[in-house]
Structure formats: structure tokens, C-alpha cells
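tool=predict chain=A
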Amino acid sequence: DIVLNPLGVPSRMNVGQVFECLMGWAADNLDSRFKIVPFDEMHGAEKSRETVEGYLKEAAKQPGREWVYDPENPGKIQLIDGRSGEPFDQPVTVGRA
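tool=predict ok
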């Protein structure tokens, strides 16, 4: 497990790494693997985001997996504090490398 400080993402990561994390999350929930070209916008201004969001939506259609995609917070889910049992204040980006 790894927890990233949201302030560290812009300074040390690029958006492609966040997309890769979310694609891994979608693939895991679809019991699949993806081999795709590097994320860039040569196929359209929002193509990378649309691709990732499309796979997350597809994963959420699986039985019992509707929590994988929240249209209000795409790419984030509500996590529960394991010690208190209370939900964290904000949804959190979850992914798999």
C-alpha cells in the first residue's frame, strides 16, 4: 500500500502516472490487463481522461462493483478509517500499478 500526499502529486508526478494508477484500478476490477500507448492528447484534447473514465465506468457495471466509479468524484472512492470505522472527510484516489 502507498499513500500519496495530494500536494506531492503535482510536484513529483505527471498526470499520466495518475491515469496509469486509475487504469490499473479499472483493470483489476475488470479482471483484465491493458496494454495501451502512452497517455498524451494526440488523439484529442480530453482523450486520455475519457479513456480512463470509460474503463472505470465499465468496471462499475460489474455486479457488486458500482462503488468503483462515482460520477460526482471520478477516479475517487469513499474510504473508511480502519480504526474508527468512520468515512474519511473526502473521497480518495485509489489505484493499482
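The chain has a mean pLDDT of 85. Strands lie at 76-77, 92-93.
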